[in-house]
């Protein structure tokens, strides 16, 4: 499936505004650069930015430190209290395996949390006015509200595009507006409080890698702790004695955290594996967009290749699209109204086959 490309039209490309007056002679370039502001400083969504806009997270990201804390604390207890005994009695490869899984989990989590999930830039004032004018012209009568949906055909399947009143544009296919982040996210899956970010087109593969690797890490630690207690309980010793010989509070904490985490994480990994194999999103699965639960009969998923391997490659191995919001770009120093009405075209959506607007 070819990726859809959307480009925000810059204000200088909308017309032929009057040229800004040149700076006075002898002006200091350093002072001019210092006065310029970056786009992340006036970003309209509910996001927080760090490191001069290089890192962005959701404003409600209070659960992310808890996620990091549980992973780091459980892993540290495992490396400190279980690994020395297992290296002596089982194999010296256990710390290497655990360290590799731990590093992969942390990297995947940070990539998911701090990356732009696929936010679409909001329409400019000229683009919004042009779209509203088209909507008003398409109204059939004066007493009926203007239509706020467009119908497109993707792979012989009718897909409705809804108008976003916040972003002032028709949402591209598979795009939804997140109420927590106040952004339209391309290929929106869901908003995950555990990673402190939306999960969309640009970070879904990292989210999937995170939950799958976390499943392996949790199961690995749970198995190693169980093996540790089993070996200590041999030789006529009971399980209670084995727990008392090892640091009791640490061992109990590891067992409790891993026992309750492994089942939920394994279930989540299995659910998203099903979504990847079907080329679905959590949002589409919950709404039943292609299962007939949405009220439309004889619907099929137009984005599926009807092949598990092809769907997995399309979701996890397709080229990663660039960020469209240009959060570290500079704001224009001076904006002037365009001299002519901009000719803004609606984005073209390309699916597996030719797409026709109805």
Describe the fold and architecture.
It comes from Scleropages formosus (Asian bonytongue). Belongs to the DHHC palmitoyltransferase family. Residues 160-287 form the Palmitoyltransferase DHHC domain. It catalyses: L-cysteinyl-[protein] + hexadecanoyl-CoA = S-hexadecanoyl-L-cysteinyl-[protein] + CoA. Keywords: Acyltransferase, Membrane, Transferase, Transmembrane, Transmembrane helix. The chain is α+β, with helices and mostly antiparallel strands and 358 residues long. It has 9 helices and 10 strands. It has helices at residues 29-35, 64-89, 94-114, 125-138, 204-232, 239-245, 248-278, 282-287, 308-316, and strands at residues 47-50, 55-58, 149-154, 157-164, 169-170, 176-178, 183-185, 190-192, 197-199, 356-357. The strands form 4 sheets. Strands 5-4-3-10 form a 4-stranded antiparallel β-sheet. It has a two-stranded antiparallel sheet with strand order 1-2. The longest helix is centred in the C-terminal third of the chain and has 31 residues, at 248-278. The model is unreliable at 1-20 and 335-358 (pLDDT under 50).
In brief, what are we looking at here?
The chain is of the alpha+beta class and 358 residues long. The protein has helices at 29-35, 64-89, 94-114, 125-138, 204-232, 239-245, 248-278, 282-287, 308-316, and strands at residues 47-50, 55-58, 149-154, 157-164, 169-170, 176-178, 183-185, 190-192, 197-199, 356-357. It has nine helices and ten strands.
């Amino acid at each position: 499936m070819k990726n859809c490309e959307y480009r925000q039209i810059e204000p200088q490309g909308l017309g032929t505004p009057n040229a800004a007056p040149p700076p006075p002679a002898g002006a200091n370039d350093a002072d001019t650069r210092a006065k310029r502001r970056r786009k992340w400083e006036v970003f309209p969504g509910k996001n927080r930015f760090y490191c001069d806009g290089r890192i962005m997270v959701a404003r409600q990201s209070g659960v992310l430190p808890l996620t990091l804390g549980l992973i780091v604390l459980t892993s540290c207890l495992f490396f400190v209290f279980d690994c020395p005994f297992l290296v002596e009695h089982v194999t010296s490869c256990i710390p290497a395996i655990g360290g590799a899984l731990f590093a992969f989990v942390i990297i995947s989590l940070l990539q998911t949390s701090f990356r732009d999930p696929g936010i679409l830039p909001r329409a400019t004032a000229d683009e919004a006015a042009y779209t509203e004018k088209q909507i008003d012209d398409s109204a059939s009568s004066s007493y009926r509200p203007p239509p706020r949906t467009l119908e497109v055909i993707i792979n012989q399947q009718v897909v409705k595009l809804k108008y976003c009143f916040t972003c002032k544009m028709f949402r591209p296919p598979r795009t939804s507006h997140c109420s927590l982040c106040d952004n339209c996210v391309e290929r929106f899956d869901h908003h995950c409080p555990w990673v402190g970010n939306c999960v969309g087109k640009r970070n879904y593969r990292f989210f999937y890698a995170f939950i799958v690797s976390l499943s392996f890490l949790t199961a690995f630690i749970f198995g190693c702790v169980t093996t540790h207690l089993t070996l200590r309980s041999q030789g006529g010793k009971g399980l209670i004695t084995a727990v008392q010989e090892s640091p009791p509070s640490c061992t109990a904490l590891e067992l409790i955290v891993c026992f309750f985490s492994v089942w939920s994480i394994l279930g989540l990994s299995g659910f998203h594996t099903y979504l990847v194999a079907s080329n679905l999103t959590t949002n589409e699965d919950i709404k039943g967009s292609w299962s007939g639960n949405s009220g439309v009969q004889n619907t099929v998923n137009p984005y599926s290749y009807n092949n598990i391997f092809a769907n997995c490659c399309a979701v996890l191995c397709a080229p990663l699209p660039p960020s469209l919001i240009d959060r570290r770009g500079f704001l224009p120093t001076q904006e002037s109204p365009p001299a002519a009405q901009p000719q803004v075209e609606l984005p073209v959506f390309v699916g597996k086959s030719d797409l026709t607007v109805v």
